[in-house]
Write a structure and sequence with these properties.
8 helices; globular; mainly alpha; 197 residues; 2 strands; 57% helix; two-stranded antiparallel ribbon
């Protein structure tokens, strides 16, 4: 190998290393975003308060981290900004406004301004009145899925963001990056917590 080839290979290796780091930082952006300086990408101030209040009500901090602790609201804002198309974003804004209007007609305040008991009461009524996801067989939905509405779709997105966060995956769910033997027939009581991998 001549000197020119060695320099070229070194440059290619260095560029690949930088690219890998950049891609990893994009994937980890929600994790590294400090809570105090976070500026939403898509949501306005009122919408951010609504989504954060929803996350805090559905996934409150207990003996395990809450949804806000693992930045589920930041994750959701990123999904809205980067994965929803323009029509989906407009529908989302209309759905958030309608959700808050239903809350105001029932309690006289937007959802983010309610106390914990009223938030829970309101979400129970939304849960009861929301269409459900179709059952699945081998991971495939059975039948044609009808729209499930704002509340259930947000709940699903929250759970996805929460359960796939690094902190929950490693500290709340069972985690074994190098699994051992396959034990196909053991009592359910021996399984313990749900596995993240």
């Amino acid at each position: 190998m001549n000197r020119r080839e060695a320099i070229k290979n070194t440059a290619l290796f260095g560029g690949a290393s930088l690219l890998t780091g950049s891609m990893f930082s994009i994937l980890q952006s929600c994790k590294s975003e400090p809570r105090l300086s976070w500026q939403p990408i898509f949501l306005n101030n009122d919408q951010t308060q609504l989504i954060s209040a929803l996350v805090d009500t559905v996934l409150p901090k207990t003996t395990t981290p809450g949804g806000l602790d693992v930045k589920t609201d930041i994750f959701m804002d990123t999904v809205f900004a980067k994965l929803y198309n323009e029509a989906g974003q407009k529908a989302l804004v209309a759905d958030m406004a309608a959700f808050d209007e239903r809350c105001k007609s029932k309690f006289g305040k937007p959802f983010a301004e309610l106390d914990a008991a009223k938030r829970t009461e309101f979400l129970k009524s939304e849960e009861a009145n929301s269409p459900k996801y179709n059952g699945k067989v081998w991971g495939t939905a059975v039948g044609e899925q009808k729209p499930v509405g704002f509340y259930r779709s947000m709940k699903s997105l929250m759970l996805w963001g929460y359960c796939t966060s690094e902190e929950v995956g490693m500290k709340v769910l069972n985690y074994d990056p190098v699994p051992g033997d396959y034990l196909g027939c053991i009592p359910l009581a021996d399984v313990g917590r749900v596995w993240s991998l």
